[in-house]
Structure formats: C-alpha cells, structure tokens
Amino acid sequence: MTGDTVEAVSCTQLAYAFGETRAVDGLDLSVREGEVFGLLGPNGAGKTTAIRCITTLLPVPSGMVRVFGHDTARDRMAVRRLLGYVPQQLSADSGLTGRENVALFARVFDVARRERAARVAQALAAVGLTDAADRLAGTYSGGMVRRLELAQALVSAPRLLILDEPTIGLDPIARTGVWEHINAVRAATGMTVLVTTHYMDEADQYCDRVALMARGRIHSLGTPAELRQGLGERRRAAGTGATDTLPTLEDVFRDVAGSGLDDQSGDFRDVRSTRRTAKRVG
Ligand SMILES: Nc1ncnc2c1ncn2[C@@H]1O[C@H](COP(=O)(O)OP(=O)(O)OP(=O)(O)O)[C@@H](O)[C@H]1O
Ligand SMILES: [Mg+2]
C-alpha cells in the first residue's frame, strides 16, 4: 500500500505447490481499486491457483495476500464478504431454477434475510435473466448459465469481482453481453474486477491493465497499449517480426508464452478448452 490508496488485491511472493508442481512461484501482483485487471497466460501458468488463494479457497502456504488490506490468512471471512467469484468450472446447480441458484449464493454470502428477495431479483435483472428466472438452470444455454453465475457473484454487491474465464465457449454476442453487464455494474458501483481470459481481443478491449503470467509468476505488466508498444519497440530494435504494424496483444502473449512450450500449451489448449466447455455446458 502506498499513501492513502488501498489496493484491491496485493500478492507478495505468493507461492503454492501441488506436490512437486510449483503452480504459483513467487507471484507479486497488485490490483488497484476500481480497475479491470486481466491475468493472462498459457494453460497451467497458475492463474486459477493464484485466484483460489486470493478468494481464500486455498490457504496461502508462503507469501502474503491482502484484499482491500485484509490478510487472507488472518481475516478470511472479512475477505469473503468483499468479493464475488465466478469459478472456471461451472458452479450453477442444474436442478434448481435460476432464482433459486442466486438465492443460495445470497444466503451463503450473508445477504441480510429481509433484503434477499429484492437483491436476487436485482442481480437476475442485471444480467438479463428476469424472464428465465423461474426455469431450471439445466434448461439454460451455455451463455445463460455463465450470466447466471455472474448474477450469483453479483448478488452480494461485491467490491471485488473475480472472474475465471467468464466467457469461455460463448458466442461473440454472448461474450459482449457478459462484458456489458459487468461494465454496467461497475459504472453503478465502482466495483474492481480481476479477470482471466484466453481471448486476447477481450483483454485488449476491456482491461485497464493486464499481467502476463507464465510458470507461476508475472513476466509483463502494463496497459494493453503499453505491452503492445513495448513489443513493437523490441522488434524494431532487433529488426525481427513485422515492424510496420503495432503488435497485437496476442503477439505479446506469444512472445511471453511462446518460448519453450510444453505439452500443456499450443494446440492442446484449444482441444482442452473445447472439451471442457462441452462437458460443462452440456
Ligand atoms: N488440484 C490440483 N492438483 C494437482 N495439480 C494441480 C491442481 N490444480 C492445478 N494443478 C497444476 O498447477 C499448475 C497450474 O494450474 P492452474 O489451474 O492454476 O493454471 P491456469 O493458469 O489456471 O491454467 P488454464 O489456463 O488451463 O486454466 C498446472 O501445472 C496444473 O496441472
Ligand atoms: Mg485456470
């Protein structure tokens, strides 16, 4: 923390290992209040693991994580009250209606009983699901399920919204829809957003700043424009790559992630994420 600005998220030398796998390996990360921050990186980079530490779903074995100044190790409930979370794996219950799913989250996240019904209706309206609210979630399309999960995360009016691949498997119109809903809530509340995505065009368009993560730590950080310009300058200096046009964020991603690809990256990614989506949405 510097001066009187409170950071929404601050990770200092965060490390988390699954057995021999160092999923997060000395992560330093700072998300400013009010910004949309994109955590990007190849499959297996450690994004979801880092996010699960920030949400207190995983303990922090090494290093420090603070959410609006609260230490996640010491002040777990305070942290949970501040955040909404859309996990990478689908979390809506297909045997409940949309409204029941959101009401469940309202209860879990401690929304006052007398406010619950109104807040649930408001969250459903915010994502355009009012008309479908009393249908079973099992009858929803993939895009509707993702919007339902957004309503679940928004019902507690979080100061920090954490989204792990919120738009995976959605058509371009549905993707835009999810972002429009997020931005409408941000405009009304000043909510901070931490998001992961493999869609570089989305990160470029919607994120104020992005961090490129690989092998458990951050390798590049800045606004999308800064990162693109930085790569453009490096290319010009080295006389490699296309130097007449500004690189895209996808070029920046390839530049960071492209060296020493292992079997979890490259073409496998598309296959894996397609399968994962088919399983989750089906
Ligand atoms: N429950 C687990 N048990 C064992 N290893 C795990 C577990 N979860 C993740 N890992 C490993 O930790 C590393 C980081 O995984 P993580 O899910 O954090 O990556 P990610 O950046 O979110 O990837 P993706 O883009 O595919 O979602 C990977 O090597 C993964 O295999
Ligand atoms: Mg992940």
UniProtKB/TrEMBL annotation:
Domain ABC transporter: 9-240
Molecular function in Gene Ontology: ATP binding; ATP hydrolysis activity
The organism's place on the tree of life at top rank: Bacteria
Protein name: ABC transporter ATP-binding protein
Keyword tags: ATP-binding, Nucleotide-binding
Record keyword Secreted present: no
Species, as recorded: Streptomyces brasiliensis
Keyword Nucleus: no
Pfam families hit by this protein: ABC_tran (PF00005)
Region span, Disordered: 258-282
